[in-house]
Amino acid sequence: MKFKNISTKLKTLQWRGSFHRNSFILILLIASIPGLITGLCIYWFAVGKVENELRTLHTSQIEQRAKNIDEQFKYLEYSTSHWAFEPRFGESLRNIDFVRQFTETYDISKTLLLLQGSHNLIKKVDLYIEGEKPILFNSEYNVLDEKSKTFYQESLKKGKNLYWEEYPVKEGTKKKTLAFVHGIPATSKDPIGSLIVTIDQNKALQLLKTLTPYDKGATFILNDENDIILSSNSTKDSSFINVLKSEMETQKHTEGSFQIKHNKKMYSISYGKFTRVDSDWTYVSAAPMSSITAPLVLVSRLILILSISALILAFILSWFTSNRIYSPINKLLKSLGHEEEGLWRRKGRDVFTIIEHQIQNLSQKSNLLQSRLIEQITQIKSSFILQLIQGYLYHNTEEDLRVRMENYGWELEGKSFTALEIQLTGLGESKDSFSNNDESLVTFTASNIMEELANEMFDQFNIIKFTDLSVGALVIHPNSDSFRVELHSFADKVTKTVNEILNMQVTVTISEPTDSIKRIPYIFEEVRSGKRFRIFENSNQVIDLKEHERSEHINQIHYPFAIEKEVIQAIRMGHTAEVENLIRPFLQELTEKGINEINIHQGIVQLYSTIQHEILHSGIHPHELFEGKNMYEELSQIRDTERIIKWFTQDVVGPFIQKLEGRMNIELKRVIEKVVAKIQESYADDISLESCADEVGTNPYSLSKAFKQMVGINFIDYLTQLRIEKAKELLINTDIKINDIAESVGYRHSYFNRIFKKQIGIPPSQYRKLNQKDHYIQVENDG
């Protein structure tokens, strides 16, 4: 039976890799040879010496198994402490409404279930939270009553943040089980609650029984107050535990072994210490000597039994030794972050290959983190410059700003600052696949071009992307007037590259240099304002504010009033295409060569104001038509002719004409519905297209065209179909004479016969004869 148990245990062993397996085999071979020699020597030694050796072996086994139990409890303490440091169990628990914040409540319950399943000895995990309404979490959320609340409140008053305690298995019962209590928050001296990990009593007893290697014996654990907290007794003698407890009180050492005699049986007693977080426990294991010395019963079996025992012992020691040898390697694996042990074990990979692979991975991650750090520094520098030019750092002193920039890696000693801005124009005229919606893509591309060229020419710079097809740059350069030439060279290279790649034109504005960091926002404002001095032609331009003569002179502008009137007339007629054809010559006449952009902008705004006046005059509010957009702001951002034309036709005139057409269609539909109702009421009268047109207040041509558009057929065809349908009903369902039927539907008799035969294919009399016969047959069948 013992061999079967050993075989079953052997089947559960798992190798942790080829190194673990090979070391085990080698140690087993080395250990088995002394075992065999020992078996032969035992044959020549006295029984007493063998007995002493067996007791020593027994004591060694107890110590090993005690260590295992100690490790189990240590792991449980470590695991609980680890979970107690979770942010979820922090100070935020004070302010959580667990009824309303049900998601947080669910997450806490889920975390407790995860902790409960993290160790085999854990039976359940409770979370107690002190408050006006004390709460106990286990598998669900509970509000404690006064009786239960007192029990947990007294636990909090112990003054310990983590300790072992005996808790009732069920409320109202005296049966208790061990529980590990950890105050939360873990770092607080004044905990608001506790994490209570209750031990499974049955599993703890099963673990405790491993300290008695034989079927008969007793094992128990004492706390630091010498009270029994866990006990297992298979001697069927209830007083044996008390005898052992009394005997332990006489022992002066914290660990060791001795023998006692009880009920004519000799027992070997082994004891030692378990060091817990809040106290020391003492374990006591008692095993009958008869079980220990059983191999000596028959001398004839001595060699065989001892040889087998030596082999088994060699196997056990080899296993433990190989584990010991492997332990540092396993720690190294864990320190390298390798947790998926089962995965590489199934693949049969060698442990040192895994270590090498993990070191390579860590090296790659280190390089990746280093590159990310460089990217982050670049982003921080860009963010700082953006905040600076937007005025968010105005309250900082010059010295503070200089220190910050130097900390970010800039060299500022003997340096000056110059701002540049490139403005892209001609997006609407670009032959590439760019549209007006690709402004961000075009700006991004231009910023990359500018950054690549700046890398070649400048040591220190920063690129800033704006949102209106413009890109800014801050260049940090030596205090030298000759550097101005390099700035112009850079502007020329940017212009040529953008022309070739994006097929767009560039206006480069260069600010005056400054050696003050607090002046940087102002020089950027100057370049943004200075670009309005560009000539309103779609051409490349460089504006150097240091050399530019700021003239307040505004050129004489000729405003094309005649074309403006034609534009308004085309809008009234709903001719969108004609509006586009008129706006083009309007802009050509407005923008003479050499006129600055700042001067012609007012003329474009005037045209939009006139169109807006027409929109208001039609009864439509611009705010509703344009969905609250600031049209003046949009217009101010457009800087090339083609985009201005598209903006007027697609964003302003187009929606307005669509709104007008929609309103006209609704009115037209109402008119046609009125005419159709008139026809259906007066089809027997002398009704005509002209009379209906007079009644609805329009001309016959317009009514006929609208009638065909709305109804789908001509006016006269609709009237004829209605009259014929009414005549067919009278022919089938009545015996009225055909002459009278013709008059009742608005026809003379002779004309009625012709029109009826033309529409139906047979005369009225024949139609009545055929259909009335079928009608009577149908009536009889229904009867």
CATH class of the domain at 67-296: Alpha Beta
State the total count of DSSP E strands.
16
CATH topology-level fold name of the domain at 67-296: Beta-Lactamase
Structural class: alpha+beta
Helix percentage range: 55-70%
Q: Which architecture of the domain at 67-296 per CATH?
A: 2-Layer Sandwich
Task: Calculate the mean pLDDT score and round it.
Answer: 77
Q: Globular, elongated, flat, extended or rod-shaped: what is the shape?
A: flat
Number of alpha- plus pi-helical segments: 27
Strand content: 5-15%
* Rg of Cα set: 50 Å
Q: pLDDT under 50 segments (min length 5)?
A: 549-555, 779-783
Largest sheet: 6 strands, antiparallel
Strand order of the largest sheet: 3-2-1-6-5-4
N- to C-terminal separation?
Answer: 97 Å
Topology of this structure?
Elements: H1 2-12, H2 18-44, H3 47-84, H4 102-116, E1 122-129, E2 135-137, E3 141-143, H5 146-156, E4 162-168, E5 176-184, E6 193-199, H6 201-208, E7 218-222, E8 228-233, H7 240-248, E9 256-262, E10 265-275, E11 280-288, H8 289-292, H9 302-335, H10 341-347, H11 351-389, H12 398-407, E12 415-425, H13 439-457, E13 460-465, E14 470-478, H14 483-502, E15 505-510, H15 520-530, E16 541-544, H16 561-573, H17 576-590, H18 597-617, H19 622-625, H20 631-636, H21 641-682, H22 689-696, H23 700-711, H24 715-733, H25 738-744, H26 749-760, H27 764-782
Parallel strand pairs: 15-16
Antiparallel strand pairs: 1-2, 1-6, 2-3, 4-5, 5-6, 7-8, 7-11, 9-10, 10-11, 12-14, 12-15, 13-14
Helix pairs in contact: 2-9, 13-14, 16-17, 17-21, 24-27
